[in-house]
Amino acid sequence: MRRYFSSNYKNIMYTRDSEKHQGLRNAQLGAIHAIASFFTMNSKQAAITVMPTGSGKTAVLMVAPYLLGKNKVLVVTPSAMVRGQIADDFQELTTLCNANVFKASMKKPVVYEMLHKYNDEMIPIYEKSDVIVATPQCALSLSETDWAKKKITLVEVDEAHHTPAKTWQQILINTDKATHILFTATPFRLDCKEIKGEIVYDYPLSMAYRDGIFGEIQYIAVPDGGDTDLRIAKKAEEVLLADRDEGLEHYIMVRTDSKSSADVLERLYRENTSLNLKRIDSSMSNVKVKQYIQELKKHSIDGIICVDMLGEGFDFPNLKIAAVHAPHKSLAATLQFVGRFARTNAANIGKAKFIAVENEDLEIENNRLYAKDAIWQEMIIDMSEGKNQKEQANRRYYKGYQSLAGVVDEDRIPIQAITLNCHDRIYKVKGFNLEADFPEEFNVGTRIHRNKEDNTIIGIGLEYVSPLWMSAEFRINKVYTLYIIHYQKKLGLLHIYSQCHTEKIYDRLAEVFCEEYDKIPKFEMNRVLGYLNGFEIFNSGMVNRYSESGEAYRIMAGSDVSDSIDPSTGKMYSAGHVFCKATDISSGESENITIGYSSASKVWSSEYRNIPDYIQWVERLGEKITNSNIKVRTNTNYDYIPMAERLTEYPDNLFFADYAGTTYSSPPIIRSRSKPGNGYRLTDFSLTIKETSKTQVTIAILNTELSMTLTCDIQGKYSSEEADLYTRIGTEEYGLEDYFNDNPVLFRTLDESLITGSEIYKGNPDAISFDQKKIEDFDWDELNTDVGLEFGSSRFKGKVSIQDALEQHLKLDAQNTYILYDHGSGEIADYIAIQVQDNQVIVRLYHVKKMHSAKYNACMEDVYEVAGQAVKSTIWLRTKGKFTEKISSRHTVGHCKPVRGDFQECLRVLRDAGKRVTAFIVIVQPALSKSAKMTDKVQEVLAAASTYIKRAGKVQGLEIIGSK
């Protein structure tokens, strides 16, 4: 076996470059010693060497096999052109001999430039070779052979930022017994895939500039407008000729992004400039490309027009002027491109110049490189070093994670590759347990990564689902779900990321990893808008504090919705969710961001981040949320909207409970486990408050078949000792308590306050009053009414129920074209009277309750429930379509029966687009008197009901049929 490299190790001379004689540069010496040091301690990991373009990594690549005493070396290059350059240099050791590392008389290695894929006939040549230089496809074919796996002892990869790509990665996997050294100027990728290995040396661009390896660069902006390609061409010609007049041997590269564009530019330069340029693209043969490169190096032409052909590894330091017709969009590609022109290893060359159209909107890593006044010398260095430092910091961060998954686990997912949308659910917690396991139903298995230093757990769930084109039982598609739990120890906050944004998921995770957990109230969540200015509010939600009809929750969307808000809006609504664009000034520098939050302790942004950046993001949110000194001002009309407060105790004047707007807009189907059969819409269940205390409210839902009692605590959490009723969200079963945790019931008070979840929107009790004169004094005796009987047959001979008396009264009015009876659970009202006029339809909803007390205007039981029903019924009058749909669905299930008129004809009238609907809500309660003294409590209830209904917007007002 040939031992060429180990036998010639003794010939290495570490001559330092100086003015007197050539030698190795600082960067090359540093890289060589770093590689040697690393491999005294490591044999399994790849060594990553980061050196800016033009700093001499080819010399380091050639010294490495001598340094490590290797036998067979495989060098992988990104292109055929670079392959030829390295093969020629290695064969003659030109660079190393010029640097006095070796004497020119030393025996040279046998180098084979692999032009074609592997075949067995070439084994004798491989056996005789010390170095094989190949492009990825050829290198892959060689690496798959038993010969390569046994004989190759060192693999060196040029431009190693390509290694995460499948072909490059497979080469390294196939040669896992060999030592790996990876060389790159940019140790990061746009797709965030990991370049596997240890960065052993990182020579910063600022030092390359200081050492004279990276030369001066200048951006020349061409004003936008007109024929920009022609203007760039003219400016490029002007700059090149001016440089040559100064005695500089400069040449030009015209950069574009497609072959068709290169064809157009070739004609444009030929017809409008004096420059002699040759076009190079991937459709040309390697012979033709080499011919043009030789013409360039022999100064026979002025430059080349290129479509990404000479971006990596190409060494021609006289290439000093770039006419950029199509800028790169990524930092890595930009740095590679700039490095081609910033080389200094030639005589009679000066500053590199980049000519492009000014573009204020194009940002690369948040830097406007193509702005009119951009200073590339500083910007490129800062961007390069900032990105490299960030890459190394991320690598250190990821090392902190310990994983249960094996390295060859089929379901192992590299967390370095995770890029997630910014979404955070936040809790205040106690008793965090990093070692807790994910609940079994999450199916995380061994795909758990824990970082003790950072108090972070990453779990990746796996389930099998059926494709859209197969029936449900064939679950053959793998679907992975990401969960991240981060504990911000200093502040006692738990941050949860879940792809599924349901309360059940968040609460289950908080329950497993913490002993106690609470939501963050909205007035604290609002602090995420602190240290921001220049607000543009794209989407805003506002909670209607007064009525569930018309708008329970107003959502506004647009370029800046704050202009639509005025002081009167703030009197009706309180702040809900918000999503906006703003400028973050917290770091001392201005950064444009998007951010939104909701009352469910959730924050989100339109950004995507890797894991360490995401953790930094959520920690900044936590610091804002817990900072009581932050007073948010958007300096827009949004500031008119008051903020919710934390609910510290339930008030003693709860008026009624109602479903959330989301329940009315998309009512779930409720089913029973104990009584399987038909499902019922939740909105067809009556909802009542059964019992209240300072710390909890007990509610009941009920229809003719099913019922359930639930309790809501001060944190807005619902629970029940019953587990009978459930609904489905997708394929998942959710108990009714889980549904209400996601869609909390609304509790309204007599003083116009609104409670939802753990927050209270306070009303204005001073604005509430009730005019007793508005009660209609009905003569119940005239119709022989048993005022103690709401419906059914009276025990008193000749007496009728209140409903029967009301029906007679309604029938006596000839203007009532249609009368519908809808008594029962989930009713719209007991009676619905509809009057048809020329241009409008007048609708009245009648809610009936019996008289419990012997005295008028004295008993809360007489008024409390019926007033709440009256207010809640306004939801069905939000639109004519909603009202029509509701009475139609009620009729279908046996309710909403016509007492007068044909039902289908009634529907046609209501659907008539030419008639608007005018609506009134009517309370029918004989216990209410127009003349008797009214207790303060009854007056308060009627005032609240009247105010809520009047402010509903879609209803004309409240009417009361009582007694004299």
UniProtKB/TrEMBL annotation:
KW Nucleotide-binding (keyword) present: yes
Source organism of the structure: Selenomonas montiformis
PROSITE patterns: HELICASE_ATP_BIND_1, HELICASE_CTER
Signal peptide: none
Residues covered by the Helicase ATP-binding domain: 38-205
Descriptive protein name: DEAD/DEAH box helicase
Domain of life of the organism encoding this protein: Bacteria
Domain Helicase C-terminal: 235-387
UniProt keyword terms in alphabetical order: ATP-binding, Helicase, Hydrolase, Nucleotide-binding
